[in-house]
Amino acid sequence: MASSAKSTSFTAVRKSVQMGDEAARLVTLVFAGGILLITLLVVAVLWDHSSLALYKFGFHFFTSQNWDPNSDEFGALPFVYGTLMTSFLALLIAVPLGVGAAIFLAELAPPKISSILTFLVELLAAVPSVIYGLLAIFTLVPFMRDTVEPALQSTLGFLPFFQGQIFGVGYLTAGVILAIMTFPFIISISREALLAVPREQREAALALGATQWESTFDIVLPNARLGIIGSIFLGLARALGETMAVTMVIGNDPSIKASLFAPGYTIAAVIANEFAEASGNLHLSALVALSFVLFLLTMVINGAARLMIMATSRKGA
Amino acid sequence: MTLRTRWRYLVNNVMLALTGFCTLLTISILFFILGYLVWNGFTSLDLAFFTELPKSPGEAGGGMANAILGSFMMVGLATVIGVPIGFLGGVYLAEYDGGWLPPVVRYTADLLNGIPSIVLGIVAWNLLVVPMKTFSAWAGSVALSLILIPIVVRSTEQFLRAVPNSLREGALALGANKATATLTVVVPAARRGILTGIILGVARIAGETAPLLFTSLNNQFWATSPNQPTASLPVMIFTHAISPYDDWHRQAWAAGLVLLAFVLIANMTARFVVSRNAS
User: Looking at the domain covering A60-316, what would its CATH class be?
Assistant: First the structure.
């Protein structure tokens, strides 16, 4: 276009083209910077709104078990305990089952069946949390109340975890539904980590006379361990922040009990239940302080998970 | 065969069988619960569900027409807010990499992605519900867009990076500047992938409940503007499921099926689009 024009207008065109180019860069820069700002905003909002409760109660906020909005007393311990306990139970169930399934899908199943099953499992990761909660209320809660928990009580009832009244809702039920929700993450990411282990490693182990299980357990699994631990951490982060399904089956009782059958409470559940109808500024602030704790927990765990998964995928590539 | 060899083969067979059992167990649990939902949903679903307002507790019949509309409105608004931010941010990360900003933005996008959605709800509450002094569809949409943005950023970046550099070089060699090359060559080459990321993100926010509980709240009636508390399908499922009424439970099953159908169809569409891209 500019070839027929005089050299002055050619520079003008080139300048305007360059300016358009620079403008485009700046526009995308602004939006990319916006993402940084949004994240800073999240921290600022949480910090700002939680300061009232943290200032009033200080460290006592994290050690007190007393949560009573009517008398403006707020202690976070039952919620922190409930969040950690339910997530721990979830991992206790989901890790052996999930890693076992990942081993089967990566090492044993024919590739076609493996990829179909993995696709289905990943599809299940997309099922909304509230739907898991709906299902849990009408299937898991009666099943735990009438079958699993009485059986545990009659066999392991001498342990303090399996004593006391059975409600159906409570820590154990919440742990089970969280386990079901973390399966897809653990299975699909662990499977990828296992598949990233070079084929030669397996062949070398088998050639030396190892059985398939020995090759898998002693050679492949240690090679993929970072990715597998990463998948567990991702599952943990999801379990800690999981709100709806837990809120629907935890029983909503802010107290700490040894029994896993007892109703409890989690950080996310108390925010879901009380935030919209919080009775005053201090109540709101205490709830935001709880969400700040949740934010920090998930941030640390997610960060660790991502580093580990990155490390394995780079090694495998 | 020595005893030790026999023992090793026994361990081998038992452990491998156990991994198969784990697969069978996890997958059958997952499919049992989905089958249960589909069964209950189908027996509860009727035309009234799509056309009528919810009835008061204890009354039979009614539907969730307002919640279906509310969900569409909020997911739509969140898409309009979140997709441009996420898309342009992703273009920056992929096409203008270098310096200190892109790695920081990449890290914060991952961070934002990992924040529990209920925490993002609190942020949207602070930004909109507090100054407007009312729960509103706007607040719900902003909360959902905060979830959508990091998903779109990272998927846009990923698919733009997959575009071969020779395409960029070809466009630049023909005299295009970087913006034109990006807009007319690179982005169109990655459009299926980018679209997939957007669809997956929209499917994800359509099912989000926690951040809506205290931003858009709920509404038993039609919301006449986005400035009012607005019903949504996920919140309706929650309130109906924990209620003690059998009729409300049936409504919850029906709503669960409709929501699940939307989410799964969106997911399968997205994967179909991607797999066609790959082949």
Answer: mainly alpha
